[in-house]
């Protein structure tokens, strides 16, 4: 299995034919990867709040289908060799987020990574949907503060998504180094991916 | 305090000047109200996933500020005389949702109510952001099934939001009568609201 490297702090896209699968590998462990998916014409995208309603849970299990904002199936979580803590609730980090955190000047961010990766396809996302934050280790407690701690994903842990429609997947190796979203002392790492038939 | 009635299954909008407050009263108890807010030029809207990140929790407490997709403050939950189970995670019910639930023909839905209420302002929402689902009684359990049960809000329970910017609030008295989102045997009820200086 030849993995393509997605460098730390960067984004990319990959086209998937219906029936193909995308495997995303935590090659260094402890790294969050933001995932989006769009139909080829840009008319629909994978939507976390719609998936939450249809799935009936806030963290996906193996076998779960993820849905678009029109509630059509788009990706299926076919395999999950990780602790499965993926987060469906967090907005992607963006310029405003890093400004609030006190970053000086430009800071790489998942929202810009997504826009740049999608740009050449001609799809104008308009807005940045909530990504599926792979490997992100969040726990929620209603009115109490939620916990966001280092991912437990180990070196080689991976997830595999089957495309249920022709689509474009967009990934961003999360550049977060100011709060402990990523491990290694909050140091972003590369990840790997491949397309499987 | 003169309340305006928002009839069951319908939506409306109200303009708020910065500093004014919107009180929403569960006049019959047990009724969910979807709430959105837009800046007057439509460039920003209240965003649940961005608010979740900035707040650090998935259910708002009194004193919490809600943010736009650009992470600017827009509304503050100033008072909450209800059990406070409001849900920040659920996509608004829409035509696709009712079709999946087996509704025959047209079914009133919060997404259409929002679009219709906002229409005359000239703001084109483009997409339907996740609303703040007021009084909605949801509980989340990571990989386990979440629970959606009847609201515990009693007759006369209310919430009050202070506008932190000039904005347009949109409300929909949730028309859900196929799953137990609303009480009274899943029968949608009217609610009331008023603007306070």
From TrEMBL, chains A, B:
Annotated DUF1989 domain residues: 5-168
Protein's name in the database: Urea carboxylase-associated family protein
Classification via Pfam families: DUF1989 (PF09347)
Organism of derivation: Ramlibacter aurantiacus
InterPro entries, A to Z: DUF1989
Species classification: Bacteria, Pseudomonadati, Pseudomonadota, Betaproteobacteria, Burkholderiales
């Amino acid at each position: 299995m030849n993995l393509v490297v997605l460098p730390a702090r960067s984004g990319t896209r990959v086209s998937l034919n219906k029936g193909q699968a995308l495997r995303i590998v935590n090659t260094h462990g402890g790294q969050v990867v933001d995932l989006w998916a769009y139909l080829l014409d840009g008319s629909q995208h994978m939507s976390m709040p719609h998936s939450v309603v249809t799935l009936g849970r806030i963290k996906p299990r193996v076998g779960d289908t993820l849905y678009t904002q029109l509630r059509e199936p788009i990706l299926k979580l076919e395999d999950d060799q990780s602790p499965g803590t993926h987060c469906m609730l967090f907005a992607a980090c963006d310029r405003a987020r890093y400004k609030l955190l006190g970053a000086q000047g430009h800071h790489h961010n998942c929202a810009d990574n997504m826009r740049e990766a999608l740009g050449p396809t001609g799809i104008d996302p308009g807005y940045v949907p909530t990504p599926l934050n792979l490997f992100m280790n969040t726990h929620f407690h209603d009115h109490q503060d939620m916990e966001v701690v280092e991912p437990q994903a180990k070196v080689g842990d991976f997830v595999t998504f089957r495309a249920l429609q022709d689509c474009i997947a967009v990934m961003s190796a999360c550049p977060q180094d100011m709060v402990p979203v990523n491990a290694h002392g909050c140091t972003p790492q590369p990840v790997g991916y491949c397309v499987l038939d």
